[in-house]
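This week, study the protein below.
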Amino acid sequence: MSDRFVKPGNQEHGWNDPPQFSYGLQKDSGGLKRNLLNKRVHAPQFTDSGSDMQSPAVAKLTPPRGMNPPPMDSSTQPSVCPKTPSDGKIVVELQTEPSIEDVQEPLYGALNVCRHTVKKQICDDVERRLKLFEDMWRSGKLSPLVKHRMHRLSQDLKSKKWDAADEIHRGLMVDHVAEVSQWMVGVKRLIAEARSLNPEQVISCTHPGS
């Protein structure tokens, strides 16, 4: 008979005595695991002076006596990350606000080109939203960052960089939705319609009055 089995409880005791495992089963499993709650904890160790008590873990981290850390050189200055050229460029751009005329000229130029092929109702709606954008600009309701990003968008639209212009439009809708939500849908439609034009139809953007 195999020596790996579970015997019933001790019949001499109560009915609910736990079963007794065979020796072979206990040996294969490494014996019954028990938490030793009466395990003795090492007493804290004294330092050389005998006055302070430290645990072994803390004692290992304590540096030997007589060894002090090297003194700090008072002439040493903390390292400072140099200012990148891009940071300076951003500061200069924010200090010099673009004009609304420079922003609107490429937008209206693209709109004039789209009027040859796009429905009048769509173009009129885009123009209405561009005028709303201009009104908010002149009344001081747009932040400098929105103005500068719209200036880049208009320049990308003028250079036929559709993906770059669309990416700026997405960023504005995410970061400044409260400022741009009323008129940005018109800019989005203008980018989509200008992108769909034939290359020979996309001419240089001109002022709406030309």
